[in-house]
Design a protein that fits this description.
Blueprint (H helix, E strand, L loop, with lengths): L8 H4 L5 E7 L7 H20 L8 E7 L4 H13 L4 E4 L3 H14 L3 E3 L15 E3 L4 H14 L4 E6 L3 H14 L5 E6 L5 H11 L3 E5 L6 H9 L8 E3 L8 H7 L8 E3 L7 H14 L5 H20 L3 H6 L6 E3 L2 E3 L1 E2 L7 E3 L5 E6 L2 E10 L1
Parallel strand pairs: 1-2, 1-3, 3-4, 4-5, 5-14, 6-7, 6-8, 8-9
Antiparallel strand pairs: 10-15, 11-12, 13-14, 15-16
Amino acid sequence: MSTPSSPPVSERAGGSSVRIGALVPLTRPGWAEAGRHLLAGLELAAREVNDAGGILGRPLELVVRDTAADPQRAVAAVDELAGLGVAALAGEYHSVVARAAAARADALGLPFLCSSAVLDGLTEQPTEWVARLAPAQSHSWRIYADFLLGAGHRRIAVATEPSVYWAAGTRILRDHLAPRGGTVLELDMRALAPTDVCDELAGHGATALLLLVGHPEPAVPIVRAVRSDRRLAETMIGAPAGQPEFTEWATLLGDEGASIPFLRYLPERLGPLGARVGTALRERLAEAPSFVAFEGYDTIAVLAAVLRSHGLDRARTAESWPRVEVEGTRGPIRFSRTPGINVWQWAWTPVQVVDRDPAAPDRFRILHTG
C-alpha cells in the first residue's frame, strides 16, 4: 500500500503526546446534542487510556474540531489535523460530513475510524485507510423495514428533505418493502407544510409516516401536526434515523414524542464493560448516555489498542484493521470487508428498534431486534 511521504508522527507532535484528531458536530446546524454525547465517549475512553499508562508510555491527546455538519469544514479540519501530526482520525456523526472527511483522509493517507455515520457509500472506491463502527444504513434500515412489516404496515409515507442520506434511506426502504407488498410515498418537505403532510397521509391511506428530515425543524412541527389531526389517530410516526434518542426530543415534544420507533445500536443487555462505561458516561453527561456516546468510547478503545500493538506509523495502522480484536462496550469488535461497503466494517453492532414509553417518556421500550 502506498502512502504519501510525511515526517514521523513523533517529530510532528513534538514527542510529548500521541494525538488523535476528533471530528464532532458541536454547533448548529450540526446535531449538537449528538456531538456532545459522541465527545463524552471519546473523552472518557481517552482519560481511561491515560490512566492506564497512555500509548507506548506517552499520553493520548484528543485534538477536537467542530464540524458543525459542514462537509467543507470537515475537510479543512482533516487537512489541519494531518498537518498537526495526528496518528489517526476519530469520530463524526453526520453521514454526509463523514463521507467528505473519509475521502480526504483516504487522499492524505490518514487512518480514520468513523464512529457513528452509517451511509453505505462512505467512500467512492475501496480504501484501506477508513474503518467504521456504526452499521451500514442498508443493514439497519432493512431491520427497521422488517419491523414495519411485522407491525402490519404496508402503506408507508416518508417526509423527506434533499440529502444523499435521506435519499439512500428512502431507496433502502422501497427496495426492501416492495417485494413484500409494501409501498413508499415520498412527501417533499420543500413544498409541503406540516398540515399539508396530514392531508397527504389521509388521502393516501398511509398507516405509517417516517421522518426523514432534520431535527428539530421540520421534524417537531410535523409530529405536532400529525398528533393533533383526528384523521390520523391510528397513524404510526417513525424515525429510523434516531431523532427521539436524545433528551431534546422529549423536552420539545413531551408526551407527543413518545411511541415513535427509531433505530439505536445497543444490545438488549450491556455486559460488565458496557455497564461500567454507561455509569461513567451518565455521570459525565448528567443524563442517560445515548448509543452515540458508546460509539465514541469504542472508537478510542479500538484506536488505542491498534496504536499500542502496531506503533504510530499511519500505514501500519491502516494495515491493522483486519487484525483488530477489541472487546467493546457492545460486544467484540472486528473489522471485515462487507459486500457493497468500501471501508473496513464492524459487521455488525447490535441493532434495536425502540421507542419512548408513553407512560414514562424517559424509558425506552425494545420493539424489535436484528
